[in-house]
Design goal:
The chain has 652 residues and is an alpha/beta fold. It has three domains: 2-86 and 110-148 and 220-395, TIM Barrel, CATH 3.20.20; 407-595, Class I glutamine amidotransferase (GATase) domain (Rossmann fold, 3-Layer(aba) Sandwich); 607-651, Golgi alpha-mannosidase II (Immunoglobulin-like, Sandwich). The chain is built from 18 helices and 28 strands. Strands 12, 13, 14, 15, 16, 17, 18, 19, 20, 21 and 22 form an eleven-stranded mixed beta sheet that branches. Helix 6 (154-168) crosses helix 8 (205-233), helix 8 packs antiparallel against helix 15 and helix 13 (336-346) runs parallel beside helix 14 (381-395). The longest helix has 29 residues, at 205-233. The chain binds beta-D-galactopyranose. The site of beta-D-galactopyranose has 9 residues, from loops. Beta-D-galactopyranose binds at residues 141-142, 267, 269, 317, 323, 355, 365, 368.
Length: 652
């Protein structure tokens, strides 16, 4: 099923019915509206102007479309900011208030905003909770986007003090847990604790971690209050979703954030995200994917959202052409809008909605493409959506729960926080480490589930890959113990205690029961200064992060240039003590897949595979025809064994 994001308030009402009819004719089912419309819904506190929205919903519904209603809390209007200035967040770098004039200008710790946001959310749910055209709800919009998880507001400080008091009980316990004897940082009372900003040099990492945990909980609490407000008024059957930002980069624990939702949604901007990711890559690596996006980036995010979702997830916003917010904004290669849509379905989506219906000629996003140009003429994406809408029928029911993959990749927001807080080497970035392991698996043609540490149910996976579990908690260790697949730990795993000290008995602390080793030293290197590592007679690069390990009863798999162990194995568990080049990871994971009986299909860079039910999807990200790695008996549902440039083949 397909949909689109629409802003009736941006266009004269005389255009709505025609727009709705064209959406229907294009083959769309869902229209998301409303998520930034607060100022048009409520003119001043309690003075509601619902009538236009009533008519918009009626017009869309009358055309046979289903409405996804966004609650407008991402954009508190000017009158609200003036009346309640304490809702505004404070920038953690400058200490300045982040003011009105864009979006997301609210503080998750503000009780005033919580009340106001709950009030508008409940009012909207009361008005439309039994509207037959409203199929479901989107809460807010991309919570935490634009670096809004952390705020240095007075409200955040007061709440953080209370949070510390509740967590540690007495100030001596906090001093001991954080190691505040260092640099004379001991406190006499919780009221003396400030937020970990605006100091001469670095603050205590334990202090910063506590603040990260607190801030994530503030976001979750805010969101849960909004969900509850909708549930109080919505009729049974109206679902609630949120378009999250995956995985582990916004400072919120996405598993906790999404727990109360019916399913999870994601906004897919492959070119924008790839441009950000590969900003420093040399042109010859980047250019082939400039108009397709990196072959594995959208897939990583899709798999991450599927891992968080109860069953099939939604693509709530799909890039239809150039965006306006990345460092460079090329147009997609011809066919890529269809390609990304089918890719989302292959990775478990139930619906893909395009952002946006028509390019808007004014304000911040005027350079962002839509399905229609500002002059109402179809943009190049239009014909691709027409094509994919016709193809949907060939794919069968995609609302079903996607099957389990053979491999689990464990992701962990806390490891991302540890990396942000303790930047021991500029070459180590947690998201990049996760991405490297994911790429290696995907280049072997293997389907991967992303599971969140702590939440993880790992039984049934034949291979479990944890690129980093910097601070594994009891739940994660227990889930690993209860699993029965082979386990791969990346470097820095088990590095820290829950209070950000070096693990007892040295890293990997609690993971020593899987691999009896001790990381006795850590060094970090410049990314362009690789040193050799040998594995099965081949020399590979090892750099950025290198641990020297003392090993107990282990089998040494790979060694550094001086013969000391770089990767070891004990029973079903493997520990890799360094970041390596891609070739090493591929080679090791290929061997482990073979041992775990996981079928692999090594793929060229521009080809990717993904199975859903009895369908196999093959994606060609190159401008050349490529041959699909399909078995002889394949019966093609879409395309053929020769996949056209930027095309897709699907077979049973
Ligand atoms: C998304 C956001 C949309 C729009 C879009 C532009 O992140 O949810 O409101 O700004 O980006 O690409």
């Amino acid at each position: 099923m397909l949909g689109v994001c629409y802003y009736p308030e941006h266009w004269p009402e005389t255009m709505w019915a025609h727009d709705a009819q064209r959406m229907k004719e294009l083959g769309l089912t869902y229209v998301r509206i409303g998520e930034f419309a607060w100022a048009r819904i409520e003119k001043s506190e309690g003075r509601f102007t619902w009538e236009w929205m009533d008519r918009a919903i009626e017009t869309l519904g009358a055309a046979g479309l289903k409405v996804v209603l966004g609650t407008p809390t991402a954009t508190p209007p000017k009158w609200l900011c003036e009346k309640y200035p304490d809702i505004l967040p404070v920038d953690i770098h400058s200490g300045l208030t982040r003011g009105f004039g864009s979006r997301r200008h609210y503080d998750f710790s503000s009780e005033t905003y919580l009340v106001q946001a709950e009030r508008i959310t409940a009012a909207m749910a009361e008005r439309y909770g039994s509207n037959p055209h409203v199929a479901g709800w989107q809460t807010d919009n991309e919570l935490c986007c634009h670096d809004t998880t952390l705020s240095a507001s007075p409200a955040a400080r007061a709440k953080f003090r209370a949070w510390c008091a509740a967590r540690y009980g007495n100030i001596e316990a906090l001093n001991a847990a954080w190691g505040n004897v260092f640099w004379s940082m001991e406190y006499d009372s919780f009221d003396q604790i400030d937020l970990p900003f605006f100091t001469v040099c670095e603050t205590n990492p334990a202090h910063r971690l506590a603040y990260r945990r607190f801030a994530s909980e503030q976001v979750v609490r805010f969101h849960d209050v909004m969900i509850a407000a909708i549930r109080r008024h919505s009729r049974p059957g109206q679902w609630i979703t949120h378009n999250i930002i995956p995985p582990a980069t916004t400072g919120v624990d996405n598993a906790a954030l999404t727990r109360q939702l019916d399913f999870v949604s994601y906004d897919n901007y492959p070119l924008g995200f790839s441009d950000q990711l590969m900003a420093k890559a040399p042109a010859d690596e980047w250019q082939p994917f400039m108009r397709t996006g990196h072959p594995d980036l959208a897939a990583l995010n899709f798999d991450s959202v599927r891992g968080l979702s109860n069953g099939a997830w939604w693509g709530m916003e799909q890039q239809p052409g150039p965006v306006n917010w990345a460092p460079h904004n090329p147009r997609p290669a011809p066919g890529m809008v269809r390609h990304w849509t089918l890719q989302a379905f292959a990775h478990g989506a139930a619906c893909v909605a395009y952002f946006r219906w028509r390019q808007v000629p004014f304000a911040q996003e005027q350079m962002h493409a839509g399905l229609l140009r500002p002059d109402d003429v179809p943009s190049p994406a239009w014909a691709e959506v027409e094509q994919v809408a016709a193809e949907m029928a060939l794919l069968g029911d995609l609302s079903t729960v996607p099957e389990k993959a053979p491999v689990a990749l464990v992701i962990d927001p806390v490891s991302a926080w540890v990396d942000d807080i303790e930047r021991q080497g500029a070459g180590y970035r947690y998201p990049a480490v996760v991405f490297q392991y994911y790429r290696a698996l995907r280049s072997l043609g293997v389907d991967v589930d992303l599971v969140s540490a702590g939440e993880a149910k790992l039984d049934g996976y034949r291979l479990i890959v944890a690129p980093c579990l910097a601070m594994p908690d009891e739940a994660t260790v227990n889930a690993l113990k209860a699993s029965n697949g082979m386990i791969v730990f990346g470097p820095r795993s088990g590095a820290k205690t829950q209070e950000f000290s070096i693990s007892a008995g040295l890293p990997p602390g609690p993971l020593r029961e899987f691999v009896p080793i001790k990381a006795i030293a850590v060094e970090t290197l410049r990314p362009d200064c690789d040193e050799p590592l040998s594995y099965q007679g081949e020399v590979h690069g090892s750099g950025k992060w290198r641990e020297t390990i003392e090993v107990g009863e282990c089998c040494v798999l790979a060694v550094y240039e001086d013969g000391s162990p770089a990767a070891v194995r004990s029973g079903r568990s493997i520990y890799i003590a360094t970041l390596t080049d891609d070739a090493f990871l591929k080679s090791l994971l290929l061997n482990l897949c073979a041992e775990a009986n996981i079928a692999i299909t090594p793929l060229p860079d521009a080809v990717r595979l993904r199975r859903r039910g009895d369908l196999t999807f093959a994606f060609n990200l190159s401008g050349e025809v490529v041959h699909a790695p399909a078995p002889q008996a394949a019966s093609f549902v879409i395309g053929s064994a020769d996949i056209e440039p930027y095309g897709v083949a699907v077979w049973r």
